[in-house]
């Protein structure tokens, strides 16, 4: 019998990005609508770039001027060095000419840097999709003035990656050893069944891929995540029921859950011996699965246990099994079945 745990989980995307502008400007073109499917690199909005185009033209002119000044200074330095070699120019004149070359070169570098900044800002007038996915509600519209300093709200649009969804859920910290073993295991260990409806049908299957680095102190639970294999029916933010397979029980006996009783000495069941005599036997339950209890010690597969009317029994009581009835008070029994890996 597999070792399973159930929990309530929620569907999460592997990526969700809120798109914002990186520069101030006015939207002149919008190419996205609510709920659109977009690919990474698609153009979403275009801002007015006329001012930046003018700045780039001015920057290119300034760079050309500085390059011309640099060429003139380099030519002057070359002439001064030739005159110095013939003792016509002085050392001071040569040093002054060299300084003019360095100043001109620095001006060229500054102009190139300023031009690079303007070109980068120009590229930011084209707002593109950073990831592939589905767009939410589009906030930006043509004619709207947007500012890079506005970090509140939902931005221009939020894009959610709809493929490779994952389900997140929490389990008690006592299951941490089983979780760690399942994460490192193979086969069906770590398999997660996801149920989104009330019909009991599996909506999707997933593989355990993540265990949080620490236990949540306030709740005593640990967060785990599993990546869905197919997610056509599920949606980010949707609550689901998950059933996680963490391993297999060793050979044991399984009885109806109602047969397992709790007393001063712990768990016990009433075993029916030959002749209808019942024996109160202490057992060690290993796990419960839906309506069954898995007994690791104290019970042999095939033995018959009492499932109704235990309140009237004592060790050594004589019973007569009856058919179930609405007001039946006589004990009912069931066979313990074998549980194998």
From TrEMBL:
Domain Multidrug resistance protein MdtA-like beta-barrel: 166-247
Subcellular location: Cell membrane
Pfam families: Beta-barrel_RND, BSH_RND, RND-MFP_C
Keyword Transferase part of the UniProt annotation: no
Sequence ranges assigned to domain Multidrug resistance protein MdtA-like C-terminal permuted SH3 in this UniProt record: 253-310
Domain Multidrug resistance protein MdtA-like barrel-sandwich hybrid: 16-153
GO CC annotation, single: efflux pump complex
Keywords linked to the UniProt accession: Transport
GO molecular function: efflux transmembrane transporter activity
Family recorded in the similarity comment: Belongs to the membrane fusion protein (MFP) (TC 8.A.1) family.
Protein name: Efflux RND transporter periplasmic adaptor subunit
Originating organism: Microvirga makkahensis
């Amino acid at each position: 019998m597999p070792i399973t745990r159930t929990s309530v989980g929620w569907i999460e995307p592997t990526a969700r990005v809120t798109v914002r502008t990186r520069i101030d400007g006015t939207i002149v073109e919008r190419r996205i609508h609510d709920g659109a499917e977009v690919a990474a690199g698609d153009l979403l909005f275009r801002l007015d770039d006329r001012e930046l185009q003018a700045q780039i033209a001015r920057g290119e002119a300034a760079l050309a001027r500085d390059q011309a000044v640099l060429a003139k200074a380099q030519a002057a330095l070359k002439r001064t060095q030739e005159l110095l070699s013939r003792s016509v120019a002085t050392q001071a004149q040569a040093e002054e000419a060299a300084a003019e070359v360095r100043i001109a070169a620095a001006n060229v570098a500054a102009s190139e840097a300023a031009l690079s900044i303007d070109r980068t800002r120009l590229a930011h007038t084209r707002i593109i999709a950073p990831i592939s996915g589905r767009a939410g509600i589009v906030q930006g519209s043509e004619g709207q003035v947007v500012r890079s300093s506005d970090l509140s709200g939902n931005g221009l649009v939020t894009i959610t990656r709809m493929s490779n969804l994952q389900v997140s859920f929490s389990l008690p910290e006592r299951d941490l050893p089983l979780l760690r073993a399942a994460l490192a295991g193979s086969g069906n260990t770590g398999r997660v069944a996801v149920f989104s409806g009330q019909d009991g049908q599996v909506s999707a299957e997933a593989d355990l891929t993540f265990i949080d680095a620490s236990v949540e102190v306030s709740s005593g639970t640990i967060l785990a995540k599993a990546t869905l294999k197919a997610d056509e029916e599920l949606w980010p933010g949707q609550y689901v029921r998950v059933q996680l397979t963490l391993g297999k029980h060793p050979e044991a006996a399984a009885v109806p859950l109602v047969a397992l009783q709790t007393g001063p000495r712990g768990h016990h069941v009433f075993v029916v011996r030959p002749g209808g005599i019942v024996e109160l036997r202490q057992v060690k339950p290993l796990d419960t699965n839906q309506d069954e209890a898995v007994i690791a010690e104290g019970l042999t597969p095939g033995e018959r246990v009492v499932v109704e009317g235990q309140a009237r029994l004592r060790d050594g009581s004589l019973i007569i099994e009856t058919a179930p009835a609405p007001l039946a008070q006589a004990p009912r029994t069931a066979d313990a079945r074998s549980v194998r890996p």
